């Protein structure tokens, strides 16, 4: 029996040949230097920031070289698959602006190199495995899980490297006849690579990010087709990235140790491997040390976190660019109206070892980002946030659209805008007192300042409304009248005069304005009081003052 016949017996239900698939997926017609990159998630239900980071770099590299960025779903480990995970991933990519131009998209599969879901590519992998068997480069292995465990135990005992290689590869040299005997006896098998490597040989690999790597050649007869007929990650990676003409495999550096295996698989297939770029993991400071950003310990490790707290996607993106390339921050700060797409990302400006993920810095970026948005956008975003996470706020925002927008506009369109909001979930905490529905004079804590005396406060409030508050005043007239009120009550209207001779006064105009601010909002610190008063109008001010007095 020859190897061709044997391969037909081992993988009997393969419809096409390797050559058929090679013809079906011809070379891409792309300009010189165009990168073909991909994001290849396993649909296991949790999208880690590290994965988003990787997809950003992949999509950016393709975009800036006029290449292709595609998404391939790696679902060959069907036990780990979670329902709905694929659409969650695709939605995240879309929301962040990393939507692929090929492969799995929210509108289904796109492109001529599909299917882009590995479980639908079984025939393809098997065609390639068959080809390897025919060439004597792969073989069936009949060892049972128990036998494999025994081998592992023995290897541990004698302190040998773990794995099926060399003398441990029991079935490597079975004759076709022996193999047939076993098949006929109903023995179960998987397909292994017949590794041509030697562990003592070193191979040199150039990684686009990490530079030159020297690693021992692979000599393990890795599994390429599992007992369910589906490929392992390693084999699927080689076959898919070959047929899809990926030029750059940009992925997390947990895969670095598999590089010798992957390079060898391409060699055995007789094709040129893609270039590799391994991204350093996102890490977090813990005391003096850095540790990996952890799904279990760090809420910010989940991409969903940013949606849940209402940090704008754009801010997250700016932050990802900041950690991706060491020169980004400078570029961003010095480029007026910077558009992220115009930044040129480079592998050699990426961290080789780890990228510190600093939530505080991300929050600062977000704070700055929101402060520069037009108030109408803040309103829309706040409403969109509230519609998902805060019904009460949503109702208020719908009811008071113009009012809320005007509120967000206070001290906004200026060189140094106010920076009250880090995220959309801050908005309610920062503005609740401007909504009568949320403000209950009997329940709030009034944060009084220097003036605490209730009679004095009453006096200030009633005098102010009676005599000094004029709705038509502009800001300077408004302030002038506040000074007049201060003087009438024996407070200094001029800070310089007050500082020179504090004993001559009961206090100063700032103390008066604090009383008005606190009576109105309960808070000692708010955006510009003049604007708040204008927004509230006399009637509501009066109501608030009366309620404040009632609370005494
Ligand atoms: N499916 C692999 C993962 O989830 C993809 C790694 C790669 O990009 O090749 O990590």
What does this structure look like?
It is built from 22 helices and 14 strands. The protein has a four-stranded mixed beta sheet with strand order 1-2-3-4, with helices on one face. A three-stranded antiparallel beta sheet has the order 5-6-9. The protein folds into four domains: 3-15 and 122-279, Rossmann fold; 31-115 and 280-372, 3-Layer(aba) Sandwich (Rossmann fold); 375-439, no CATH class; 454-550, Arc Repressor Mutant, subunit A (Orthogonal Bundle), CATH 1.10.10.350. Helix 14 (375-389) packs across helix 16. It starts with a helix and ends with a helix. Helix 3 (49-64) links the parallel strand 1 (36-39) and strand 2. By secondary structure, it is of the alpha/beta class. Glutamic acid is lined by residues 40-42, 74, 237, 249, 251, 255.
TL;DR of this structure?
With 552 residues, this protein is an alpha/beta fold. It has helices at 3-10, 18-24, 49-64, 85-96, 122-134, 145-157, 176-184, 233-243, 259-269, 303-309, 313-324, 328-334, 359-371, 375-389, 391-399, 401-409, 426-431, 454-468, 475-488, 495-500, 509-521, 529-550; strands at 36-39, 68-71, 102-105, 108-110, 138-141, 190-193, 202-207, 211-216, 223-225, 248-252, 275-279, 282-286, 289-292, 355-356.
